């Protein structure tokens, strides 16, 4: 069952900042770092997430490919919003990518440091990101989402487990149209998924 997206259904905490409707950032003053992840809006658009690919680099300039999130039906390629350095990757979320659907604000992807901390103060608050998402929804009235995207499903758990086990034959038996991520030789087009540019989201 699908329904029109309603901005009032979205979980957008007030105690974090937003780069755009796709990415959130939270500052850790004790560690002098920033956690970054995908928003509830992003995970609802993606649907059931089955893998995440980290770009093999520790230093990023603005616009560099940052990470890629793949769902059963779609793929999101995220570019670095500003110059930054990776302090830590969330290896747990890479092993259990479905947690991005369940708790997108617990499942951070990277911890980073910024080359210029002033970039943090240019980010958006909850009200500003709500306005941005509402404008996007208005421009895309045909958009529909799965209202249960945040709920864990047996299909997603089963598929994620098979991906972790590299049991490709069983995945294809269960779902002939499944997207099979290849962490060591990542090619979004080979996986049969259309890469989205940031401005399409």
Model description:
By secondary structure, the protein is of the alpha+beta class. The chain has one domain: RNA polymerase II/Efflux pump adaptor protein, barrel-sandwich hybrid domain (OB fold (Dihydrolipoamide Acetyltransferase, E2P), Beta Barrel). It has 6 helices and 11 strands. It has helices spanning 40-46, 91-95, 99-102, 126-139, 154-164, 168-174, and strands spanning 3-4, 17-18, 23-28, 33-38, 49-54, 59-60, 65-71, 75-79, 84-89, 110-114, 144-145. The radius of gyration is 17 Å and the shape is globular.
Show the helix and strand layout.
Elements lengths: L2 E2 L12 E2 L4 E6 L4 E6 L1 H7 L2 E6 L4 E2 L4 E7 L3 E5 L4 E6 L1 H5 L3 H4 L7 E5 L11 H14 L4 E2 L8 H11 L3 H7 L27
Antiparallel strand pairs: 1-11, 2-3, 3-4, 4-10, 5-7, 6-9, 7-8, 9-10
The backbone outline, from C-alpha atoms, is globular
Can you write the helix and strand succession as a string?
A: EEEEHEEEEEHHEHEHH
- CATH homologous superfamily identity: RNA polymerase II/Efflux pump adaptor protein, barrel-sandwich hybrid domain
Total number of helical segments?
Answer: 6
Cα-based radius of gyration, to the nearest Å: 17 Å
Q: What's the mean pLDDT score?
A: 77
Based on secondary structure, the structural category is alpha+beta
The main sheet orders its strands as: 2-3-4-10-9-6
According to CATH, what is the topology? Answer: OB fold (Dihydrolipoamide Acetyltransferase, E2P)
Low-pLDDT runs: 147-155, 174-196
**Total number of β-strand segments?**
11
- The percent range for strand residues is 15-25%
- Helicity range: 10-25%
Please give the domain count. Answer: 1
State the separation between the terminal residues, measured CA to CA. 22 Å
Write the CATH architecture name: Beta Barrel
Largest sheet: 6 strands, antiparallel
Specify the CATH class: Mainly Beta
């Amino acid at each position: 069952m699908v329904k029109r997206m309603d901005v009032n259904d979205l979980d957008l905490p007030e105690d974090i900042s937003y780069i755009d409707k796709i990415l959130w950032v939270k500052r850790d003053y004790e560690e002098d770092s920033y956690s970054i992840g995908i928003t509830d809006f992003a995970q609802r658009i993606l649907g059931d997430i089955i893998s995440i690919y980290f770009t093999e680099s520790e230093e990023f300039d603005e616009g560099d490919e940052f990470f890629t999130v793949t769902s059963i039906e779609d793929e999101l390629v995220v570019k670095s919003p500003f110059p930054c350095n990776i302090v830590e990757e969330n290896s747990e979320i890479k092993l259990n990518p479905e947690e991005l659907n369940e708790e997108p604000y617990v499942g951070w992807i990277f911890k980073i440091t910024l080359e210029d901390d002033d970039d943090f103060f240019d980010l958006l608050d909850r009200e500003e990101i709500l306005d941005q998402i509402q404008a996007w929804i208005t421009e895309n009235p045909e958009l529909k989402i799965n209202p249960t995207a945040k709920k864990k499903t047996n299909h997603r758990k089963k598929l994620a487990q098979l991906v972790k086990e590299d049991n490709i034959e069983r995945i294809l038996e269960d779902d002939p149209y499944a997207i099979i991520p290849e962490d060591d030789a990542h090619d979004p087009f080979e996986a049969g998924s259309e890469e989205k540019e940031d401005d399409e989201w």
